[in-house]
């Protein structure tokens, strides 16, 4: 355990954690002891005992401005002084109205209507519900399935799980329980005409039974950290539009500048019918997500059976989260990210490309503020993490991947340290 006067308190907390607390995808008690974090500021996590780690993960894509950003702290405190939460049924408030307006203004053309909910998985559920309800309302109730490509990840609730990569992983537990969807092969990194044709064929062949195609644009995140050619997004747009199938972009990981463009969709210049946002929406402060849709989708749903979208969570439009999200968008609107992300991209390339060809390394790839080292074997997560921590870097490898998506405010020297941490993790794990 950590030394010092608070070592006893830290040991007690870790013992209680083992006794009572679930962690993501963890057994109970956990297989590996978690690191106890006491505070976080800028790009650094401060552990019990005083050790500081550069956060290479942005707390899973979320903390793009780093921790304790003065503008975000102030927005949260200010809103807490007015109203923390009120129900959204029959009531509305400025934080939600202004945030929805901001999002509609920033989103790809045509996405004008905003459903505010509380996590990425739920925003995907809502997107799917929108697509199914709109198809029913348009007289196509038999269109209840979804299509996607392999290698994706869209969340852990049941409908999102059904469009995650079906091979391996936690979700194979649910074979036979999940709705059966339609899958194309994983999207290649390079342009491949025959893959594009296969996508179009899949949509044509299944158009009578699919409500929507759902994909992560440009980067498939938790399904394998793979990048694909943006032109496939245009292929999907054309084929779905031709057959009355809705196109859903899940920008929960890719949104808000991470890939070097404001949205992943911007790499292809296409607008989906429905789009999911989450994670960095609040700069990582609070749990908030959004599902945006076009007027055509909204009007179909509103004219259909029930007269509205069949969803309405308790914490819809939470004012604290909306206020922080607006402050985060305003930081992004200042444009600093557009200078920083290419610098981070260059720093990650410089630091990670030399690992290509190293023993155990199968691939190195960098896009925007995302750097990935893929090994030729599954990582020993505890060992790899410990090696990065010894370098003063927080990483969370999974499967055969050691990767980073650091806060946009990470300086060049810290980006170089993150790359060094990845190199150590790759050598150890
Ligand atoms: N969709 C994508 C692309 C994601 O990366 C994630 C989270 O990792 C989700 C959906 C689910 O979001 P949440 O974990 O907030 O439910």
From TrEMBL:
Q: What lineage does the source organism belong to?
A: Bacteria, Bacillati, Actinomycetota, Actinomycetes, Micromonosporales
**Signal sequence, renumbered to the chain:** none
The answer on whether this UniProt entry bears the keyword S-adenosyl-L-methionine reads yes
**Modified-residue entries (N6-(pyridoxal phosphate)lysine), positions:** 279
EC number(s) on file? 2.6.1.62
Organism name: Actinoplanes flavus
- EC main class here is transferase
Annotated site (Participates in the substrate recognition with KAPA and in a stacking interaction with the adenine ring of SAM)? 25
Per UniProt, the keywords (alphabetical) are: Aminotransferase, Biotin biosynthesis, Cytoplasm, Pyridoxal phosphate, S-adenosyl-L-methionine, Transferase
Q: What is this protein called?
A: Adenosylmethionine-8-amino-7-oxononanoate aminotransferase
**Predominant location:** cytoplasm
The source's domain of life comes to: Bacteria
GO molecular function list: adenosylmethionine-8-amino-7-oxononanoate transaminase activity
């Amino acid at each position: 355990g950590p030394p010092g006067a608070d070592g006893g308190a830290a040991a007690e907390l870790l013992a209680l954690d083992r006794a009572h607390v679930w962690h993501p995808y963890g057994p109970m008690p956990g297989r590996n002891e978690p690191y106890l974090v006491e505070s976080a500021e800028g790009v650094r996590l401060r552990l019990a005992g005083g050790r500081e780690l550069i956060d290479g993960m942005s707390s899973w894509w979320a903390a793009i401005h780093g921790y304790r950003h003065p503008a975000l702290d102030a927005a949260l405190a200010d809103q807490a002084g007015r109203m923390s939460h009120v129900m959204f049924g029959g009531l509305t408030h400025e934080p939600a109205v202004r945030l929805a307006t901001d999002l509609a203004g920033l989103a790809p053309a045509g996405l004008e209507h905003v459903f505010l909910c509380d996590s990425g998985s739920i925003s995907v559920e809502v997107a799917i519900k929108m697509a199914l309800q709109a198809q029913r309302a348009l007289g196509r109730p038999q269109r209840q399935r979804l299509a996607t490509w392999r290698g994706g990840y869209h969340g852990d609730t049941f409908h999102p799980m059904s469009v995650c990569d079906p091979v391996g992983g936690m979700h194979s537990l649910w074979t036979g329980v999940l709705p059966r969807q339609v899958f194309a092969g994983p999207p290649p990194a390079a342009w491949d005409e025959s893959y594009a044709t296969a996508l179009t064929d899949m949509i044509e062949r299944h158009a009578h039974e699919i409500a929507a195609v759902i994909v992560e644009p440009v980067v498939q995140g938790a399904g394998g950290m793979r990048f694909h050619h943006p032109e496939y997004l245009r292929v999907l747009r054309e084929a779905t539009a031709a057959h009355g199938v809705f196109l859903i972009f899940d920008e929960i990981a890719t949104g808000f500048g991470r890939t070097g463009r404001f949205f992943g969709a911007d790499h292809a210049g296409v607008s989906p019918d429905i789009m999911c946002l989450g994670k960095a929406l609040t700069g990582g402060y609070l749990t908030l997500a959004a599902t945006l849709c076009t007027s055509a989708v909204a009007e179909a749903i509103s004219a259909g059976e029930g007269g509205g979208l069949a969803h309405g969570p308790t914490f819809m439009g939470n004012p604290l989260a909306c206020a922080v999200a607006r402050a985060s968008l305003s930081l992004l609107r200042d444009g600093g990210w557009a200078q920083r992300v290419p610098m981070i991209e260059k720093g990650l390339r410089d630091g990670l490309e030399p690992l290509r060809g190293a023993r155990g390394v199968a691939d190195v790839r960098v896009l925007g503020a995302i750097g990935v080292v893929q090994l030729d074997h599954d990582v020993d997560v505890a060992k790899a993490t410990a090696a990065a921590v010894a370098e003063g870097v927080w990483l969370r490898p999974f499967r055969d991947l050691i990767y980073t998506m650091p806060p946009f405010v990470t300086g060049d020297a810290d980006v170089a340290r993150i790359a060094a941490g990845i190199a150590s993790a790759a050598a150890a794990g």
